[in-house]
Specification:
Largest sheet: 4 strands, mixed
Shape: elongated
Radius of gyration: 27 Å
Structural class: alpha+beta
Number of strands: 10
Bound molecules: zinc ion
Length: 376
């Protein structure tokens, strides 16, 4: 979900990136502050002032989220969990962990630090607001400080919901993990709770839409959907990761796969390979060397009357890094390649030689057996 982001800067060695969806949010936040929030709370200012306040508010929110995520990352680093960086996206920020936390204690400290930092910011901003009111600072300054106090408080409360993968859900997982010493069980329970919270928000959103609060309802609905899917996904990923951990491609591959020679005619390819083996693509091998790949796509693009004269060598294209993998590569890498390209088979290549074929089916078979045996 968090693919490409725009790199902004580096802070304490962590790369801060912003997802394109955040730009949409920045505009939406500025707009709703300038049109709704500030005119309601601070009457009698000019439209231009409201817009400046709106933009400053959105910028403040942006910095607050970075502060929140940065505090997670700094604690994680103290516990030796490698952090890849921080990405801001539509529903806030994510600190990208390179690995799962190593202990319940590490996870607890890391998770609680986020809401704690937001509470801290809320208090600081509220202090500034009080000081501003007492020293009669300009209304816009006070308004922005008050808004930031409120939004940071809200961030803390929302993140403390025990809905995994929100911070509160991670706290819950850490507690369960510490109690029962079973990481998978703790993840299953807390992501179940997260998913239930997501469902509740979806229902609440629909209820609000029916009541006439369309914008608010849609927000609840979207956040609920996001929570539900990420709760489910984090558990599935964990199960996958645990099961495939340390497994190499060689273990799943079928050795000596069916290959085609470049001199084979297209007609033969269809009759003797595609129809016979029910496969969509084949490695093209010339005297033991991989020279290309041929798939039904290229056959489709060739007029039927040419199938007799044209050979596989004419049709074959170079095999890309997307459909080949090394035998000593990690099985997780194969899986992520497959999910990225939508292809369910990869050619296992060593140097220039085809050594095997790895399919999603074989990996899933292994996974389901392993999960069954590991189930407690
Ligand atoms: Zn957080």
């Amino acid at each position: 979900m968090f693919g490409k982001g725009i790199k902004l800067f580096k802070l304490f060695g962590f790369e801060v990136k912003v997802d394109l969806s955040w730009i949409f949010i920045a505009v939406l936040v500025s707009w709703s502050l300038a049109i709704g929030y500030f005119p309601t709370h601070y009457k009698g200012l000019s439209t231009q002032t409201y817009w400046l306040m709106g933009i400053a508010g959105a910028l403040g929110l942006f910095l607050s989220i970075i502060f929140h995520e940065m505090s997670h990352s700094l604690v994680a680093r103290r516990f030796g969990i490698p952090m890849k960086g921080i990405t801001l996206f539509i529903f806030g920020g994510v600190s990208e962990m390179g690995e799962e936390p190593t202990s319940a204690k590490a996870e607890f400290a890391m998770a609680i630090m986020g809401p704690a930092s937001s509470v801290f910011l809320a208090l600081v901003c509220y202090g500034i607001f009080l000081l501003g009111v007492r020293s009669s600072w300009p209304t816009p300054t006070n308004g922005i400080a008050q808004y930031l106090a409120w939004i940071n408080g809200l961030l803390a409360v929302f993140n403390l919901l025990p809905a995994f993968p929100l911070d509160g859900g991670r706290v819950l997982r850490a507690i369960l993990w510490g109690l029962k010493r079973n990481f998978r069980w703790a993840t299953r329970i807390s992501s179940g709770v997260g998913s239930a919270f997501g469902f509740l928000m979806i229902v609440l959103g629909l209820f609000n839409v029916l009541r006439g609060d369309f914008i608010g309802g849609i927000w609840w609905f979207l956040i609920g959907m996001f929570l539900q899917s990420s709760a489910k996904m984090s558990y599935q990923q964990l199960v996958l990761r645990k099961a495939l951990e340390g497994e190499v491609v060689r273990r799943f591959m079928v050795a000596d796969p069916t290959t085609v020679e470049p001199s084979t005619s297209v007609q033969q390819l269809v009759e003797d390979y595609i129809y016979k083996h029910h496969l969509k693509f084949f490695p093209v091998v010339d005297s033991d060397r991989l020279v290309g790949c041929v798939s039904t796509k290229q056959v489709q693009a060739t007029p039927r009357q040419e199938w007799g004269q044209k050979t596989v060598g004419d049709l074959a294209t170079a095999c890309s890094a997307e459909n080949t993998i090394r035998p000593q590569a990690d099985a997780l890498e194969a899986l992520s390649k497959m999910s990225r390209t939508g292809s369910s088979r990869l050619i296992v290549v060593e140097g220039n030689h085809v050594v095997g074929m790895i399919t999603l089916k074989d990996m899933l078979k292994f996974l389901s057996l392993k999960v069954e045996l590991d189930e407690k």
